[in-house]
Amino acid sequence: MLARLQSAMGRDDLIDKMILLPEPRKLLTKKVQTTTSINLIVGYDASPNSHTALDIAFWIAHQTRLATNEQVTVQAVYVVEEASQPDYSNVLHFTKRLPTLECQVSEVTKSITSVLTPSKLARIKSYLQTETITPLQEADRILWQARSLAEEWQGSFKSHLRFGCVSTELKKVAESESADILFLGCQSVYHPLIAAFGANFPCAVIGIPNCIDE
Predict the structure, then answer these.
(1) Beta partners for residue 41, in sequence order
(2) Structural domains in the chain (count)
(3) The domain that contains 60 carries what CATH number?
(4) 64: pLDDT confidence band, cut at 50, 70 and 90?
(5) In the sheet where 19-21 sits, what is the strand order?
(6) Chain CA centroid to CA 195, Å
(7) Contact (CB, 8 A) for 165 and 172
(8) Distance of alpha carbon 76 from its chain centroid, rounded?
């Protein structure tokens, strides 16, 4: 599908630039034997780069359905970082923006897919009881944007709201959802987020090339 994307854009150099981490060899045979559907995960925070990554994922999902008639699900993951975690500002950095509440907080919490430990429940309760409710409003706005794009593509879509370290939470979702590819807004294999994944990430990681707008 990357080859089709490359051809559609009239390029011959995109594949090498987009693959940030290859799929672990030990998983290749196992996935071929057991996978009945395709899961594409996208690290999303509504930034221009992550929006491009999500758009590419939807394009690939659409083309895959047309070519193979297989079920393809695109899943957007937004991670609310704790203050003590590293700053990955170019990819999934939480910033203070003017909040737009697209739905009630009770509906927002239904999107939380991480395991709710007592400490996480305490943090959420703190958000709901103080003016720092803004992060949940922001998460709702961001995931609403992802859902809106999914409606345009008319594809199968899931969203995840996670709390903690970006690299850790993305890896957890990739493992739990048996992801085939993780798409990010990264443009280099030297990005600190890629380094944080290490060599044992459960699926291939695809970024966007610097030449995407050329």
Answers:
(1) 75, 182
(2) 1
(3) 3.40.50.620
(4) confident
(5) 19-21, 204-206, 181-183, 38-43, 72-80, 156-163
(6) 17
(7) no
(8) 4
